[in-house]
Amino acid sequence: MSQPSNQGARIKAPGKLDSSLGEFWVENPWDIVSQGHNLSAYERDKVFLNLAGKDFVDISFPSGADSEGDGRCAVAADFRNTGQLDVLVRQVSGGAVTLYENLFPQRHYLKVSLRGSKSNKLGLGARLTVIAGGLTQTRELYPINTFLSQAPSLVHFGLGDAADVERLTIRWPSGTEQTFRNLSGDRHVLVDEGKSGSDAVQVVLPGRTLPP
């Protein structure tokens, strides 16, 4: 796999191949498929359930997500605008795209998008802290990137049984800090950097694009 970005590369095998082990060599990595080879080892996908931050349980089989399709990316996002994170998996050998629907019991949530003024427009790099139901959660806004995929530029907080957020604190890359209290959950809000009070928070309706 030398020189993967050079479509004209021709690299000789560095040594003798062992055909009994299924070893092969292609002088140009762009020719792997055309020569009938496949890099997939058909490893089964795994899903682990976090138990209150104390342990993990393997739920790959009961969730139905233990595909051997050679998954290359996984994106968790609220694709159905229900407040629950589904998982989109892109696979090489098991179908192009598979969407796993979140069927766990519905709980409360808050989604937060940012609009920077002193900071960058999307607020990338901001740190958000939510206090709700006696628990504190901290997230940083960095869209998750996996192979040929990217999650939306927002922060999703699962609130469990708490219907409201006691306090939301945003520390922007510019150094600006905003604090909001007693926010209702179960909605998507857009927060403007530098504004205060109700002027800083707009509700984003399901299925709508963010306000300009």
Describe the protein's architecture and organization.
There is one protein chain. This protein is mainly beta. The protein has two domains: about 50-100, no CATH class; about 110-205, Immunoglobulin-like. The chain has one helix and 15 strands. It has one helix spanning about 60-65, and strands at about 50, 55-60, 70-75, 85-90, 95-100, 110-115, 125-130, 135-140, 145, 150, 155-160, 165-170, 175-185, 185-190, 200-205. Strands 11-6-14-15 form a four-stranded mixed beta sheet, with no helix packed on it. A four-stranded antiparallel beta sheet has the order 8-7-12-13, with no helix packed on it. Strands 3-4-5 form a three-stranded antiparallel beta sheet, with no helix packed on it. The longest helix has 4 residues, at about 60-65. The radius of gyration is 23 Å and the shape is elongated. The model has no long low-confidence stretch (mean pLDDT about 85).
Strand order of the largest sheet: 11-6-14-15
Gyration radius, to the nearest Å?
23 Å
Strand content: 35-45%
Strand and helix order:
EEHEEEEEEEEEEEEE
In total, the number of domains comes to 2
| Mean residue pLDDT | 86
Per DSSP E runs of 2 or more residues, the count of β-strands stands at 15
Output the CATH topology of the largest domain: Immunoglobulin-like
End-to-end C-alpha gap: 45 Å
Q: What's the shape? A: elongated
Helix content: under 10%
Topology summary:
Elements: E1 48-51, E2 55-58, H1 60-63, E3 71-77, E4 86-91, E5 97-100, E6 108-115, E7 127-132, E8 135-140, E9 145-146, E10 149-150, E11 155-160, E12 164-171, E13 177-184, E14 187-192, E15 201-204
